[in-house]
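Page 42, continued from yesterday. The earlier attempt failed because a stray header line got pasted into the input along with the sequence. Redoing it now with the clean sequence only.
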Amino acid sequence: MTPVPFLADGPAPGADLSLFGRFTGSWALDCTEHEADGSTTVRRGEWHFGYALGGHATTDVWILPGVEHGVSVRFPDPSAGPGVWRSTWVGPGRRRVHTFLAAASGDDIVLDGGDLRWTFSGLEPDRFRWRNEARLPDGTWRLQQSFEVWRS
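This time it went through. Structure tokens are written below.
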């Protein structure tokens, strides 16, 4: 049996993967973990983006040494709405799996996971910001992580 590669060289013909495809390549990041008591911890990490699954999806791996290696698989799903993507993130270090619907929102990209919201903002060719927020019981959002990200 011939192994089927997970990664792809680019988008499949006719596939519009530009929403997340713009991030293809390797990035460095500073991750700030925001605790409920207001304290913070900053760690240096890396993030690698590419195409996958025959060019029908994008994938990325972010690495915080000693904390987590997480992987996302994202693909456009017109049946969920115009411009909507499905995204699944797996983090084996913390034993977590999160699913989201993602779409452009103004100049940002927002991933909605119900009680979790991830946002890509300040999108420039060589840098961006990312934040992870959790919904509190009163409906407000608490910042859990923020990343400053730049091409490495």
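Notes: Helices lie at 18-21.
Reminder to self: strip header lines before submitting.
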